[in-house]
Amino acid sequence: MEFTTADLCDRYPELVRLVAPVFRSYGGIQCFSGAVETVQSFEDNTLVRSTLETEGKGRVLVVDGGGSLRCALLGDQLGRLASQRGWSGVLINGCVRDSVELARIPLGIRALNTAPMRSSKTGSGSVGAKISFAGVEFVPGKFLYADPDGILLADQQLE
């Protein structure tokens, strides 16, 4: 599906919500969309990995890392895994690392910033829950649309 977030805002103003423009782009793909899957985990990427190991089917993984800037929840290995498993993109309320490598991977990636430290591996957190950050509530099955102009969330697939 080809789209621009500006066109979606113009066509469906009552159906889209703007995700606060606080995220930077790190992936090799600038425009991506898909049904949302969620992970909530603070400074631990165990559930991020296990979720990305499943078939992505064009979905977007939305990770609430609590806005931590102390460690990364995604690096080049998980980025490659996500791309290979068919995920469209990843949105992280937290950090990534290996940014030069991530830019070469055909995957949409948005995060707050980079941090070279790796996360812990305790398995804490949850998968598939409602999570809220950047002014919106992410629920599995909603649709996320991202391009260089911004990120939108809709209750249903648009177009």
Commentary on this structure:
The chain is of the alpha/beta class. It has a single domain, classed as Ribonuclease E inhibitor RraA/RraA-like (Glucose Oxidase, domain 1, 3-Layer(bba) Sandwich). It contains four helices and twelve strands; from the N terminus they run αβββαββαβαββββββ. The strands form two sheets. Strands 1, 2, 3, 4, 5, 6, 7, 8, 11 and 12 form a ten-stranded mixed beta sheet that branches. It is globular, with a radius of gyration of 14 Å.
Overview in brief:
This protein has helices spanning 5-11, 46-52, 76-84, 99-102; strands spanning 16-19, 24-25, 32-40, 60-64, 72-74, 89-96, 108-114, 126-127, 131-133, 136-138, 143-147, 150-154.
So, CATH architecture? Answer: 3-Layer(bba) Sandwich
CATH superfamily: Ribonuclease E inhibitor RraA/RraA-like
N→C terminal distance = 8 Å
State the oligomer.
single chain
CATH domain class = Alpha Beta
List the helices and strands and how they pair.
Layout: H1 5-11, E1 16-19, E2 24-25, E3 32-40, H2 46-52, E4 60-64, E5 72-74, H3 76-84, E6 89-96, H4 99-102, E7 108-114, E8 126-127, E9 131-133, E10 136-138, E11 143-147, E12 150-154
Parallel strand pairs: 3-4, 4-6, 5-6, 6-7
Antiparallel strand pairs: 1-12, 2-7, 3-8, 3-11, 9-10, 11-12
What distinguishing features does this structure have?
globular; two-stranded antiparallel ribbon; 10-stranded mixed sheet; 159 residues; 4 helices; alpha/beta; 17% helix; Glucose Oxidase, domain 1; single chain
